[in-house]
Amino acid sequence: MSTASLSEPRSRWWQGRAVRRFARHRLALIGVVMITALTLACVAGPWLLPYDSLYIDLRARFAPPMTGQHYLGTDPLGRDIAARLLMAGRTSLLVGVCAMVLSTLLGAFVGVVAGYRGGWVGASLMRMVDAFLAFPSIFLVLALAALLKPSPTMITVIIAVTSWMEVARIVEAEVRSLREREFVQAGRMLGLSRSHIMFREILPNAMGPIIVAATLTVARAILLEAYVSFLGYGIQPPLPSWGNMLNGAQQYLASAPWLAIVPGITITMAVTSFNFIGDGLRDALDVRSGPG
After folding, report:
1. Counted domains in the chain
2. Which of 18, 46, 96, 119 could make an SS bond with 14 (beta carbons 3.0 to 4.6 A apart)?
3. Does the pLDDT of residue 289 top 70, yes or no?
């Protein structure tokens, strides 16, 4: 028997049905459209706008939306808000996606080892997870951000370090339900190493919950970056992010409310889109669901 035949076809069981279920989830499809449009706008938009995000026009300070070619208005320095918003989107979305990748890798590794090994190894790892979960993540993020030099890379690492625990718990529970299945026992009988069984046999069969958790983690990472940057401990100007755009707008809420409304709506759209996608994936990948 080849080792390639050991893996249970559980991950393939839902592939055909998952697409059909996801396609019937209207909110998930709306989320896909919204986040795709937002991503494309952030990638290509700054090249299409008439103004650069750093261009300063002192004569156009506090211009309201739809003033000339300033489609979303200008800020206190006369910079075009649309250009800054899209450049900020590059930063915030990149931080969210990279933090998700790091936290998912770390959480999946801890969860697989804890779930498969069990005993004192699994108990120790899960108590470490519980210890991290005992601290409110926002305070932990703020404490680390205040101690370390703020930069996109550092903020990404800080968010990842404080966001992996939920993934670890999900993966640990899934692996515990898989470790006594027939394909795992067959791998042990063939003398496969623990690492091979954990990461080549069990992990692919636990990808459904991991994908759902990863999608929701992106939304959480975007919110955390916005919180930290809004409070002044995150990404620093002149590099824009949605969070520090809100930070710069708070003193002008009465006189120029669009400075806060525009990035606030954009953050809401991004987070809501990823949450809709996560809900759709959770329903689509639920093996307890009926036929698709």
Report:
1. 1
2. 18
3. no
Asked if residues 114 and 172 have their Cβ atoms less than 8 Å apart, the reply is: yes
Check: CB of residue 241 under 8 Å from CB of residue 111: no
Two structure tokens written together for 39:
């991503």
What is the DSSP-derived secondary structure letter of residue 5? G
Contact 115, 176 (CB under 8 A): yes
Give CB contacts under 8 A, 24+ apart, made by 144-147: 145/228, 145/233, 145/234, 146/233
The answer to the question of residue 218 being in a domain is yes
Q: Which residues pair with 80 in a beta bridge?
A: 74
Q: Are 105 and 282 in contact, with CB atoms under 8 Å apart?
A: no
Buried b (16+ CB within 10 A) or exposed e, 173-185: ebbeebbeeebbe
The domain in which residue 182 lies consists of: 19-58+67-285
Give me the pLDDT at residue 14, please. 47
Mean pLDDT of 103-115: 93
196 vs 200: CA distance, rounded Å: 5
